[in-house]
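Annex B.
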Amino acid sequence: MNDLLSVENLTFENCHGKRWQRKGTKFTLGPVNFSIRAGETLAIVGANGSGKSLLAKLLVGLEQPDSGAIYLNERKLEQYDNKHRVLNIRMVFQNSNESLNPGITLSSILEEPLKLNTNLDSQARMRKVEQTLKLVGLLPEHRFFYRHMLSDGQRQRVALARAIILNPQVIVADEPFAALDPSVRSQTVNLLMELQRELGLGFIFISHNLGIVRHISDKILVMKQGKVVESGKTDVIFHWPKDEYTKKLVQAHQALISGQD
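Peptide transport system ATP-binding protein sapF: predicted structure tokens.
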């Protein structure tokens, strides 16, 4: 089976006048290498400031790398491939409340990417909106709702619906469960896994929660200060971590689990 998404020697530096850099600061990401196949989940873990979210932005095209390459179905993604990337690599952000426009209905929120990226007429777009709402466990009638009418869990489902409505191949999820309470978090994790099985999606999953990481991921990439310090299959990383930083993360997770028993 061929790789769905692969990254080769990807690097990024914020010392070239990037918009968001603070004066006098320098951060170097990479080199980063990994690959996933359809139906696989790669978890990216590490402390705040390790470069996890920056890597996510590079994957979806919100930032451009200084060197290296990203391949989708063995096709190299160039900067001018933004339309191809938008259709095939979609992102779910951490704070669904901030990413959903409070002044328009869910129908308008979900219809917008269809208007921008497809030739579907209004009736076909509405059918697609209703189908996608059902896929994420909501009702077709939810298309008339506004953001404030939804629970946190429902908002995250809408964010997921917006990500999958263009039938992408890869979902990049940046801390998608951080704002959810444990019971809602569990339901959303199960929903993600069901969608992955049904749609054959590749997932890039960024999280601090090693319990969820262990539950849903096939592979793990461990980052520290912009560098990949360890990578491998999830079971191997948890049972036989090699890097000292990885060992500390796993030990902290095990201590937390022991404390809950």
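The longest strand covers residues 5-13. The two ends are 41 Å apart (CA to CA). Further annotation is deferred to the next reporting cycle.
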